[in-house]
Amino acid sequence: MRSYSNTYIFVFSAIMVIIVAAILSVAAMTLQPFQKKNVEINKKQNILTSVNIESTAKDAEALYEKYILESFTISSKGEINNEVDAFNIDMKKELAKPIEKQNLPIFISSLNDSKQYIIPVYGKGLWGPIWGYVALGDDLSTIYGANFAHKGETPGLGAEIDTKDFQIKFFGKQIFNEEGQFVSISILKGGAADPNSKYEIDGISGGTITSNGVDDMLKDCLSSYESYLKSIKQLTPEMDIENVSEVVSEESQVNN
């Protein structure tokens, strides 16, 4: 049986490690543009889903270009900043900044001869981050659609936030009350106190912590857009709230 010196074995192992590392490095660099593109397409799909447009990896970009009219960032005071690319904002990093330094993305779509204002949200669930998009109708209060996702919530419990059954509960709810005060949407354990409430939905059975996470996420993120939404409402003729809710409901049925 042939034997090798320790020096030979060490040199051979070092060369193999270098070769394998080089191959992995080249592979990572080669695949990086494709991975980045997949992330971009997935993000566009999520934005489209928030306005009830279903898409695939093949048609997401075309549908995004068709329905998303513009995107920009705003400050917590409602001031628009067109110099920052809203699409590439990392909400986790942005929300970690002092509120006066945050650039908050907003996307505007056009469906049924009306505009929708799409707001990204980011928060914390039971086991990790949760995020999504909430679309408001022309009245800037009624929810037109919602899309949520998570990193590691419990299947069958907190993970239910990314299902249509949970997300559809938000359709037609309102984040401003009749007095124009911001109230967000409350997610209540055991069900809403008033089944007909415009501002409450039923929480996830067995997923209390995740439900609370979504509740906190909506309050924290949507409140940052309050100044902007109120400033736009002052420039926009008041719409009939019932008509907005009917449009939301019809659009949901068509896309389901």
Share in β-strands: 15-25%
In terms of quaternary structure, the protein is: single chain
Estimated helix fraction? 25-40%
Mean pLDDT: 86
**Overall shape:** elongated
Q: Strand pairing plus helix content: what structural class? A: alpha+beta
Describe this protein with a few key phrases.
256 residues; alpha+beta; 6-stranded antiparallel sheet; two-stranded parallel sheet; disordered C terminus
Describe the 3D structure.
There is one protein chain. The protein has one domain. It contains seven helices and eight strands. It is 40% helix and 20% strand. By secondary structure, it is an alpha+beta fold. A hairpin with a 5-residue loop joins strand 1 (68-74) and strand 2 (80-81). Helix 1 (6-49) crosses helix 2. It has a six-stranded antiparallel sheet with strand order 2-1-3-4-5-6. It has a two-stranded parallel ribbon with strand order 7-8.
Q: Topology of this structure?
A:
Blueprint: H1 6-49, H2 60-67, E1 68-74, E2 80-81, H3 91-95, E3 104-111, E4 114-124, E5 129-136, E6 143-150, H4 164-167, E7 186-188, E8 200-202, H5 208-223, H6 226-235, H7 241-255
Parallel strand pairs: 7-8
Antiparallel strand pairs: 1-2, 1-3, 3-4, 4-5, 5-6
Concise overview:
By secondary structure, the chain is α+β, with helices and mostly antiparallel strands. The chain has helices at residues 6-49, 60-67, 91-95, 164-167, 208-223, 226-235, 241-255, and strands spanning 68-74, 80-81, 104-111, 114-124, 129-136, 143-150, 186-188, 200-202.
